[in-house]
Design a protein that fits this description.
- The protein has helices at 20-30, 42-50, 68-77, 95-103, 116-175, 183-214, 226-236, 238-243, 269-286, 338-348, and strands at 12-16, 35-39, 56-60, 86-90, 108-111, 222-225, 247-252, 264-267, 292-299, 303-311, 352-356, 362-370.
- The chain is of the alpha/beta class and 393 residues long.
- The chain folds into 3 domains: 3-114, Rossmann fold, CATH 3.40.50.2300; 154-213; 222-382, Heat Shock Protein 90 (2-Layer Sandwich).
- It has a 5-stranded parallel beta sheet with strand order 2-1-3-4-5, sandwiched between helices. It has a 5-stranded mixed beta sheet with strand order 7-9-10-12-11. Strands 6-8 form a two-stranded antiparallel sheet.
- The protein is elongated and about 100 Å long.
Length: 393
């Protein structure tokens, strides 16, 4: 509520009392700070409150026809008046009366006679709180509306992109069927086609991220070899790593990564590709030149651990918010979505992710994914896998 509506007063108080002397005392104490409206009967108080514009009600307990309890009950039952704070004022000294009043929804209970200064301070505090609450509620409503608009725009944008992009991907496929193309032209068309699939996959992942945020993602866990996936990611990111002279090593707790070795987890392969690709790319960008990134795989009784360690330290200012949305530091083109999407993907797959900055000059991120001992004897050939991602990521 805009305080300017009350002509330099702090608000509007409805004083409900049938005793003229009591009305005079309270009005004298409050009139310099509030606009005072008076009702000498309970029915009139209910009517005036329903008209709106009341910030606080001072309600006498003992009144003819309709006592303060009934007035309070009527006010709290009406959606138009239920949020108006009520202070009971009475000469009764029973704690039971106070208990009943508070149970009915009153915010305070003042016994008569009371120091006018105390009555004024209690009114000032309660009305100030009401103003602050209304302003906060308004800002929260505006924020929720803004978020809803943004989500709707993002969803429409993502869906609208998929249509024309599908058409773009289809053109190289048709042109490649022609028999009059040179090898160079065919190579260029394949580059266009692959880039289109990359963009389409990015859009699909952003849609998945949106669903994960809103709790509507259809998580369908499978059993797959994470080691094979990590090796593919390292290969895909080799160009970025080579540009900084960074080498990437994958090591297992038992030291055996010979052919046929697997590292079985339970999750979804495509989200795992995205989350580990983001984390490893983040490690490459944060690493010092000519250094190494270690990816350590280890086993737990019901979990699998993937620890990614690189040189360089996460700035202290963002360590506590490392996985929050839009948090980034030191990257001109950084969006702060990589680590956030990784955290969201791990959470969706019933896992967890942790940041470790305890060693000077190093940063480690550990991803923990579930695993069932029932699968311990499975041969890799029996592992259910998702469709191959080659060329689609």
């Amino acid at each position: 509520m805009n305080r300017g509506e009350h002509t330099e007063k702090n608000g509007v108080i409805l004083l409900v009392d049938d005793q003229p002397e009591s009305i005079l005392v309270v009005k004298e104490a409050l009139k310099r700070h509030f606009i005072i409206k008076i009702a000498t009967r309970g029915e009139l108080a209910v009517t005036l409150a329903a008209l709106g514009g009341i910030d606080l009600i001072l309600l006498d307990l003992l009144m003819p026809e309709m006592d303060g309890y009934e007035v309070c009950l009527r006010l709290k039952e009406d959606p138009r008046t239920r949020d108006i704070p009520i202070i009971f004022m009475t000469s009764k000294d029973s704690q039971e009366d106070e208990i009943v009043a508070l149970r009915l929804g009153a915010v305070d209970f003042i016994r008569k006679p009371s120091n006018p200064a105390i009555v004024l301070l209690r009114c000032v505090n309660i009305v100030a709180y009401q103003y602050a609450k209304k302003e906060l509620d308004l800002k929260n409503e505006q924020l929720q509306q803004a978020l809803k608009v943004r989500e709707n725009v993002e969803r429409l944008f993502q869906h609208d992109l998929k249509g024309p992009l599908t058409g773009i991907i289809g053109v190289p496929q048709m042109l490649l069927e022609a028999d009059n193309l040179t090898d160079g032209q065919k190579t260029m068309l394949k580059v266009v086609e692959k880039s289109g699939y990359v963009m389409l996959d990015m859009i699909n992942r952003s849609l998945d991220l949106f669903k994960m945020e809103n709790g509507t993602y259809d998580f369908q866990p499978t059993v797959f070899d994470l080691l094979e996936l990590l090796e593919r990611i390292v290969t895909d990111l080799k160009r970025s790593a080579d540009a900084k002279g960074v080498t990437i090593h994958i090591e297992c707790a038992d030291g055996d990564l010979n052919q046929g070795k697997s590292f079985v987890v339970i999750g979804e392969k495509t989200p795992c590709y995205s989350l580990f690709s983001n984390l490893i790319m983040n490690a490459i960008e944060a690493s010092e030149r000519e250094t190494a990134i270690a990816i350590d795989l280890s086993y737990g009784e019901a979990e699998r651990f993937v620890k990614i360690t690189n040189s360089g330290e996460v700035p202290e200012a963002i360590r506590d918010r490392f996985f929050e949305k839009y948090v980034t530091s030191g990257k001109k083109s950084g969006t702060g979505l990589g680590t956030y999407s990784a955290w969201l993907s791990v959470k969706t797959q019933n896992g967890r992710i942790d940041l470790d900055t305890s060693r000077p000059g190093e940063t480690s991120v550990t991803v923990v994914l579930p695993y069932s001992e029932v699968l311990a004897g499975f041969h890799p050939a029996w592992i259910r896998d998702l469709p191959d991602l080659d060329g689609k990521v």
